[in-house]
Design a protein that fits this description.
The complex is a heterodimer of chains A (about 675) and B (about 190). Chain A has about 675 residues and is an alpha+beta fold. Chain A contains eleven helices and 21 strands. Chain A has three domains: about 240 residues, Lipoxygenase-1, CATH 2.60.60; about 90 residues; about 190 residues, Rossmann fold (3-Layer(aba) Sandwich). Helices cover about 5% and strands about 40% of the residues of chain B.
């Protein structure tokens, strides 16, 4: 609910990542100051303004505008800061109005990241003022609040800063106004001088002739630039990568005032928001040939994301090109049928060879069209295969097959990947091309490895025991992959094996010591594990809903949890089944995921009651089976699980490393 | 070019079209009176129907934005129109090289989903653009064009190894492309 504040009123803030939206009828300058517990601004470097738009946790616009969005991350502001003041001022360039009384009352809103308004304030009653403190965000007993201030100053920013106790008030006010005037004049960003593409140090985007003269110390900005915006990389839209003139390397004397040029008030150690490293480009192709495919040739902020998008792009392209082929063949079939019917019903065709000739012609037309369609498909398949040939070796472990050499150089990662390969997909027409099936992490739905006999395509697993074992091996390979791609200590695996029947398949997990505890057996083990996870889901949900993440009990494991269940519903009583369904529904949102190995027939006793559970899980199979539909055309894709090659030690090696990292972390 | 005029287009250099875009633009209805939100919005829709041997096999319109084969893409439904300064409010992009081999004609249509006739719509136009060089192949001014709610605008059809466009500009009436099918079929 939005609180409409009046002057002096305050309102608690439940979020720390906020946007302050300003709308005024005329271009205004927005700035923000930080002050400590005593209310003093510790210096000009605690002021975010158009000349120095970004402070830790705070970013303002570089120019005067009628609408502003200030990004604020209260978690990221220095600990010493107890108050953030949001200021508005009229530009003094002589083009616009000269007092707030002449324009519509400015409106400010504090919103969440999703745009929902938390509090709004219309600054009324202004007259001759040219600068105003609109809002203050302040700390009270560890929590943040917002207060509507609305204090105006007829003397402009200089008077405002002086009132806040800033010694360099006049210089700073001048600097802000000149930065605004400059950004107004800067119609086109000037090209960076003297920088090459490989050197991503944005040294000079100088527009004024003199600002380019000051050389930066190379060490100041060099190195891989970090994302410095308050929201990290995703918020970088609207934060152009070119530095402002104000930033253009004037590290020599940060406090140098004066009208000669804008002064850089940013902290020397602070790094700019950088664009993502440019995607790899294909080497120039020989004349007259199309350029070859390149791994990572898609949009995204990281190689991880680019490869993910590229793989999904290949998936869509294959789905669509196959749709084109199939619809052409269908059409050719139906046309031939119609033509043959016509020949049959035409009495003339019974005389002599006319009928045969007509039939022959119809067949030829059919073959011709199918041939053309196949040609187009082959052309597309060749291109996708060429792309797959360069993409597969470039994949990171999370996306790679177990036989990919990248697993031999495996290191426990520092952050969770975007997605996980759960297997391969292909269509009958596209053999031998395989598309990795990547699902996003954290998992949005549980996984179900079907150990039932029904789906098996080739009948190679005639023995249901063998099929169950295959399903369990698939599940173990998946669980191991999930463990391996998460940072140490951020993924916990629980196993329920009620009858102890899968001890052999589980050996890689149990032997390497990556499990939180030994596999739970028997009805008691089942209900104990389920009760523990149910309680965890409940606690985390309460904390999330109440906005009190710090109220969780200290011993709670904050890692993502995966529950691997073998032989469902063996060992499950009604209460345990209910708990399982609760986990399937509520778990994914709070980091508790399911990986079930089950034969639906075994649970037939429950009748249709479990159908919603099965539907909510992503069904995978231990053998190749065509049961997955793509989201675009709905072909039936053949899924193949991603298994460790027989005889390979890679799973052992990887799990050993995971276990070592766990012990170090614990 | 005027309504109903049919001309064949072939590139001068002997090559044929590889990618075309159908653009549709119109001006939003003016706000009336105090209750601005109660004005009647104008919603025009662009559609492309794909034919194989005079049988419709696929259609791209606001409920099916990409043809199954991915070669024809609609940029998305615009329900209210634009500022009327000549920009496309809806567009359909056709990658002629990727069209399935059996499809031999693509017909572009414009419908008034909200039912206003083209007489009531301001600054409405539709056009076909050669995407490779940005050249406009055909342009119709719909506004003030008569008491019709639809127009069968143009067809692009195979000729030899490439494609040719024929402007049709046939007025018709209907809410979506389905209503136009009887009028389209004689034009194939």
């Amino acid at each position: 609910m939005t609180a409409e504040l009046v002057r002096g009123q305050n309102h608690p803030l439940t979020q720390v990542r906020l946007e302050v939206r300003v709308s005024a009828g005329t271009p205004v300058v927005a700035a923000a100051t930080l002050s400590d517990e005593q209310g003093t601004i510790r210096g000009v470097e605690w002021v975010a303004h158009p000349g120095a738009p970004a402070l830790p946790g705070l970013e303002v616009s570089r120019q005067a505008a009628a609408d502003h969005r200030l990004a604020v991350d209260l978690d990221a502001v220095p600990d010493a800061v107890h108050r953030v003041d949001v200021l508005l001022a009229l530009p003094t360039d002589g083009r616009g109005p000269v007092r707030f009384g002449a324009v519509a009352a400015p409106f400010v809103a504090v919103t969440g990241l999703d745009g929902t308004e938390v509090a709004t304030y219309t600054i009324t009653g202004l007259d001759a003022e040219t600068a105003v403190v609109a809002l203050e965000l302040y700390r009270r007993q560890g929590a943040w609040k917002v207060r509507a201030v609305g204090q105006g100053y007829a003397g402009g920013l200089a008077e405002l800063f002086a009132d806040q106790g800033l010694a360099e008030a006049h210089a700073l006010a001048n600097c802000i106004q000149s930065a605004v005037a400059q950004s107004h004049a800067r119609a086109v960003p000037a090209p960076a001088s003297g920088t090459t593409d490989t050197d991503r140090v944005h040294r000079h985007a100088a527009t004024t002739p003199d600002s380019g003269v000051h050389a930066t110390q190379p060490g100041q900005h060099a190195g891989p630039t970090q994302h410095g915006g308050p929201y990290g990389r995703d918020a970088s839209h609207g934060m152009p990568a070119e530095p402002t003139p104000a930033q253009a390397g004037q590290g020599a004397d940060p406090a140098r005032p004066g009208p000669a040029g804008p002064v850089d008030y940013t902290h020397p150690g602070r790094q700019r928001t950088a664009p993502p490293p440019s995607p790899p480009t294909a080497p120039p192709a020989p004349q007259g040939q199309p350029t070859g495919p390149v791994a990572g040739d898609a949009t995204g902020w990281s190689m991880d994301e680019r490869l993910y998008n590229q793989v999904w792009g290949m998936f869509e392209d294959l789905a669509r090109t196959t749709a084109a082929y199939r619809s052409a063949v269908d059409f050719a079939d139906s046309r031939m049928e119609k033509e043959l019917d016509q020949v049959l019903s035409d009495p003339r065709s019974r005389i002599g060879g006319q009928g045969d000739a007509a039939r022959e012609a119809a067949r030829a037309r059919h073959a011709d069209l199918v041939g053309q369609a196949r040609q187009a498909l082959d052309r597309d398949l060749a291109q996708l295969q060429a792309e797959a040939d360069v993409v597969e070796p470039a994949l990171p472990p999370a996306y790679a097959r177990w036989d990919n050499p990248v697993w031999h150089g495996y290191r426990v990662p520092m952050e969770m990947p975007m997605a996980l390969r759960v297997g391969d997909l292909h269509l009958p027409e596209s053999d031998p091309l395989r598309i990795p099936l990547l699902v996003r992490l954290p998992l949005e739905r549980g996984l179900w490895i079907d150990s039932g006999r029904a789906g098996s395509l080739d009948g190679s697993f005639a023995d249901s025991h063998e099929l169950r074992q295959g399903a369990m091996e698939t599940a173990v390979a998946l669980a191991a992959r999930l463990l391996a791609v998460h940072p140490a200590g951020e993924f916990t695996l629980h196993v329920i094996d009620p009858a102890g029947s899968a001890a052999g398949s589980l050996a890689p997990l149990t032997r390497s010591g990556v499990l939180a505890g030994p596999p739970a057996v028997g009805a008691a083990g089942v209900s104990e594990v389920l009760a523990r996870l149910t309680e965890r889901v409940d606690l985390v949900q309460m904390a999330v809903r109440g906005g009190a993440a710090d109220a969780l009990p200290p011993g709670l494991d904050t890692a993502q949890q995966l529950l691997l269940i073998n032989d469902f519903p063996h060992g499950f009583d009604d209460r345990a089944v209910t708990r399982l369904r609760y986990l399937a529904d509520e778990g994914p949102a709070v980091g508790v995921h399911l990986l079930m190995v089950a034969d639906r027939e075994d649970a037939a006793g429950y009748g249709p009651l479990l159908d919603p559970l099965w539907r909510s899980l992503l069904r995978l199979t231990p053998v190749a089976d065509d049961h997955l539909a793509d989201p675009w055309v709905g072909h039936a894709w053949t899924y193949e699980p991603s298994l460790v090659p027989p005889g390979s030690q890679i799973l052992q090696q990887v799990l050993t490393q995971v276990a070592q990292a766990r012990t170090k972390y614990m | 070019m005027t309504k109903g005029q049919a001309i064949s287009l072939q590139k001068n250099d002997g090559g044929s079209l590889t990618a075309v875009r159908m653009g549709l633009g119109w001006q939003a209805a003016p706000r009336r009176g105090l209750f601005g939100s109660r004005t009647r919005e104008i919603d025009l829709d662009a559609s492309a129907v794909l034919f194989a041997d005079k049988q419709p096999v696929d259609v791209v319109f606001f409920r099916h934005l990409v043809s199954d084969d991915g070669s024809v893409r609609h940029t998305g439904d615009n329900l209210v129109g634009g500022v009327g300064q000549g920009g496309d409010d809806e567009a359909i992009l056709v990658d002629l090289q990727r069209i399935p081999v059996h499809i031999d004609q693509i017909v572009f249509t414009v419908n008034s989903f909200t039912g206003q006739t083209f007489q009531e719509v301001q600054n409405a136009f539709c056009r076909l653009v050669d995407e490779t060089n940005g050249q406009e192949l055909a342009r119709y001014t719909l506004a003030g064009g008569g008491a019709y709610t639809a127009q069968i605008m143009a067809k692009v059809h195979r000729s030899g190894p490439g494609w040719t466009m024929t402007a049709l500009g046939t007025p018709a009436n209907g809410r979506t492309f389905q209503d136009l099918m009887p009028s389209i079929l004689p034009l194939l």
